[in-house]
Specification:
Number of strands: 6
Pfam families: DUF218
CATH architecture: 3-Layer(aba) Sandwich
Distance between the termini: 77 Å
Domain DUF218: 51-167
Radius of gyration: 19 Å
Organism: Paractinoplanes ovalisporus
CATH class: Alpha Beta
Protein name: YdcF family protein
Shape: globular
CATH superfamily: HUPs
Helix content: 40-55%
Number of domains: 1
Number of helices: 7
Strand content: 5-15%
């Protein structure tokens, strides 16, 4: 009898945890979609802004960007070429010396004709929240077009807007051809939304803040 009672209590507690997780996830989805609503555009229709923020993604051991990151960089280049932005801020992970998302992204863009003077690099954009906080507090970005894949776009725009950046967003779907990575990313996004809600509620400091950077302002004067 005693054992059965503890089993029932354990099952009840487990059910409550699951229910809380479902409610948090659903609430997070409503928040991201509601906050991003009206601020997500096609590449052709997005209003001009001073800066495109390219959020980081995987680079390979040879330094080449993954298809997901390359697609983001290609959009940013086209926005620059079209006069929709005047500078590109690449935010990504450079926590290890041998792994450098922003630096390799710059190499990719410069090789395709983007002037290095119009590129700024954030080496401590370890996640979307950190990238948005640092764009505002460290790089002085007040208005931007956020560039990422569509499954990630509502969360990215919602975070940046909530953290004080007048952000719009443009998303890529060309890499949907990589069906398994795309599907896995969509699934992971559900958990990432819950984390985003927690980050916004706690207003945690990014992993690394550091000193003020003037590279975005310098790029905008080119």
């Amino acid at each position: 009898m005693f054992q059965r009672r503890w089993v029932r209590r354990g099952l009840t507690a487990g059910a409550l945890v699951v229910a809380l997780g479902v409610l948090t996830s659903a609430g997070g989805e409503l928040w991201t979609r509601g906050t991003a609503h009206g601020h997500v555009y096609s590449e052709a229709d997005v209003p001009a802004a001073p800066v495109a923020i390219v959020l980081g993604a995987q680079v390979y051991d040879d330094g080449s960007p993954s298809p997901f990151l390359a697609a983001r960089l290609d959009i940013a280049k086209r926005l620059l070429d079209a006069g929709k932005v005047r500078a590109i801020l690449i935010s990504g992970d450079h926590s290890r010396w041998e792994y450098d998302e922003p630096g390799n992204s710059e190499v990719y863009l410069v090789a395709r004709g983007v002037p290095a003077a119009q590129i700024a690099l954030d080496y401590a954009g370890f996640d979307t929240y950190d990238s948005c906080v640092r764009a505002k507090q460290i790089f002085g970005v007040r208005e931007a077009i956020v560039v990422t894949q569509t499954y990630h776009l509502d969360r990215a725009v919602a975070l940046c807007r909530t953290l004080g950046i007048n952000a719009t967003g443009v998303g890529d779907e060309s890499v949907k051809i990589y069906k398994e990575p795309w599907r896995n990313s969509v699934v992971r996004e559900r958990g990432a939304v819950v984390k985003a809600v927690a980050d916004v509620i706690t207003r945690r400091d990014p992993v690394f803040l550091g000193r003020q950077e003037t590279t975005v302002q310098e790029a905008l004067t080119r």
